[in-house]
């Protein structure tokens, strides 16, 4: 808490950015008695609530229904004529996002946080400008998140990013998704499920770089089964606006016609025009705000958290970083967030979820490991006839038998892995997994019935 000798600043804390991390930090700090203000130039809720996780998953739910209708026949249901209404889906989605934004605003107001609408720019370490007003604060917190990074080159002004995908007037007939990360595969599944003809183009050899190789290969095969044209090791040289849609010129001389091109080529920290130089806040070599383990920047009274720091760009991570910041600065309990073993999900079709190390990471960091893997058809699809597989993989440190990685592709993967993440965080061993009784019949029980590890590549090579 500020001491009696603290200079008479307007606020004890000024938060720049009204996303999940900034809002949590502001209202929790206010709960300690601190005088808190927050500035947001767009809408409260940030990327996740407004044009990220939440609306994306709502669209993902919608995209699953065409398969649900088809699958119903295997269970004796007759589903009659059906028609998809894009405008109705978007209107319903917008109404829910409006509701959630209202909740965020009410939480701030009820906590006594002073809200300011407008772009905030630091004038120095203790002063911030919002519109034509200037405020001072003992502590500043930057939580401005990230923004889509866009390819450079001829014709890319005709493409959209994921931001605009949530507000299209109509569902496009032919869609090209450019990219291979989680946003790309998620929107490829959404547009495909809603009825668009989808081509996904990626410059690398396989989608989902950084994920476990078995996850990458399994999901790629499933996307192709669903009718997505997955084109790897390919780039787009230029884009032309045509009378009917767009013409994409590929690096190998090929041509592709489409109605919508979406660039999903990554995100970058939102650091533009924040006055960081004037405040003495340094960036790292990735263009993100440089912070220490306590989220403190190069300026001792200025902190930063969430995607603008480019550590682990997930909403729950930003929220936990916010809680650690409040504990450290306002509750007298200095602590850093533990960024190890953070679970994550990709809401692709089918979904992916993972926690801990990939097989490649484990071999590099741990050494000798045991790898368990199972691929099977989910019980649901024994009656639907759908050729969709679930893949589950467990990585175990051989010496200690501690489970250090779990990777799942398939129905309910995120719901399954959330519970597994608790076990990994607690240091559970393979023997403890083995001693756990499975819930039958479920896919999740596979993770407590894995018995035989895969052959060790090093041993195979030596034989």
Tell me the layout of helices and strands:
Blueprint: E1 11-16, H1 20-30, E2 36-40, H2 46-51, H3 53-72, H4 86-111, E3 114-117, E4 120-122, E5 127-130, E6 133-142, E7 146-148, H5 162-165, E8 174-178, H6 182-194, E9 197-202, H7 213-225, E10 229-232, E11 236-241, E12 246-250, E13 255-258, E14 260-263, E15 267-269, H8 276-279, E16 302-304, H9 315-330, E17 344-346, E18 352-356, H10 359-365, E19 369-376, H11 381-384, E20 390-397, E21 403-409, H12 413-425, H13 430-434, H14 457-462
Parallel strand pairs: 1-2, 1-6, 2-3, 6-16, 8-9, 8-14, 9-10
Antiparallel strand pairs: 4-5, 5-6, 7-15, 11-12, 12-13, 17-18, 18-21, 19-20, 20-21
Helix pairs in contact: 1-4, 1-9, 3-4, 3-6
Biggest sheet, open or closed, and with what strands and sense? Answer: 7 strands, mixed
Overall body shape: globular
CATH class of the largest domain: Alpha Beta
CATH architecture of the largest domain: 3-Layer(bba) Sandwich
Classification by helices and strands = alpha/beta
The whole-number mean of residue pLDDT values reads: 95
The end-to-end distance, rounded to whole angstroms, is 65 Å
Give the CATH H-level superfamily of the largest domain. Answer: FAD/NAD(P)-binding domain
**Percent of residues in beta strands?**
15-25%
Pick out the low-confidence regions.
Answer: none
Number of DSSP E strands? 21
The CATH topology annotation of the largest domain reads as FAD/NAD(P)-binding domain
Proportion of residues in helical segments: 25-40%
Radius of gyration: 24 Å
